[in-house]
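worker-3 :: picked Probable allantoicase
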Amino acid sequence: MPPEKTRKHSHFLSLPDLAARPAGGAVVWANDELFAERENLIKPRPAEFRPATFGHKGQVYDGWETRRRRDLHPDAHDAAIVRLGVPGIVRGVVVDTAWFTGNYPPTISVEGAFVAGYPSVDELVEGTDWTTLVDRSGVNGDTHNPFAVDSSRRWSHVRLSIYPDGGVARFRVHGEGLLDPDFAEGMTIDLAALENGGRITACSNMFYSSPNNLLLPGNAKTMGDGWETSRRRDTGNDWVQVHLAGRGTLRVAELDTSYFLGNAPGVGRLSGRDGDGDWFEIMPAAELRPDTRHRFLIADDRPVTEARLDVYPDGGMARVRLFGTLTDDGLQQIRDDWAASA
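worker-3 :: C-alpha cells ->
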C-alpha cells in the first residue's frame, strides 16, 4: 500500500484536477505508449474495462500502457509529461491503476517544473530542470493511489515516471490554479474561473457530480459535465460557495443550466462577502429556465472575495461565471502570490 502519511492527507481530493482535459490539460509527451495511448491518463471519466476486447497489440486498456522493458537496470523507467490546464500549486496527485492487475508499475515518482509560455517537447525533455514532488513510492494495482504534495511553488508541467514499465489508467493532479498578474491588470475577467484561480470551497450536496465542474473553461457537453444534487425531500435548498481569483467587484453573473431539462433549479440567488465579513445579497432571487444560459447584471459595487450561489430547491447547473474587475489591493495580492510561488 502507499505510505501511511499519504492516506492521512486526502483532503486535496476535493480540489480541482488541474491536469484533466476539460481543465485544459494535455499529455504532451511519453517515451512509450505501445499498448495504450498517453492521452487516456487525463480523461475526466473513471477508467472502463471491457473484457476480451483484443486488438492487434493485445487487450485494449483505457489508460496509458508501455511495453515490457528488457533493461534490468534498477533506474530504468518510462515517463509521461502533462501540461497543466493552468499553472498552480499542486496539493496532491492520484496515480490510478484501475483495471491494471498483472501489468501495473510497482513504483512511481512525480516531478514538477514551471516553464513560461509554450515550450516545445524537446525543451521539456532535454532542457528543463525538474523538482521532485513525490519520491519514488510503491503503488498497488487496480487501486486509486493518492499522494499528498508538500510544496508552495507553482508548476506548469508535471512528469509521471513508472518503474520499470506498465500501465496507469488515470493521473490526477489536484491543486489551486494561479492567475498570472500580467493577464489581470485593467481587465474584466471571470473571477470564478478555475483558469483564473477561482475554486470551490464548500457545497451542500454533490450526489451526482462535482461542483468543481461549474468553474471549468468552455461549455458543458452533457448534463454530466456540470454540478447536480440529489432530490430534496425537505424545506431547505442547495448551495455552492466559490473563493474568487482575487478581491474584486462583480458586474455580470452567468448561470448556465444547459442540458439540465427536468432537473434545473427553479430559482437562483447570489450572495457575496469580503474576507471574513458577513454575507450580503449581490443578486436577488431570479427564476431560472431549463437548458438556458442566463445572464444577470450586478449593480452592487461592494468588493467581494467569495460568492455563494443558492439554488431553490435543488437541481443541476452546468457553469457559473462571475465577471468583474480586481480591486487595487486584489491585484496586488495576486502579484504577491505569483512572486511567492516562483
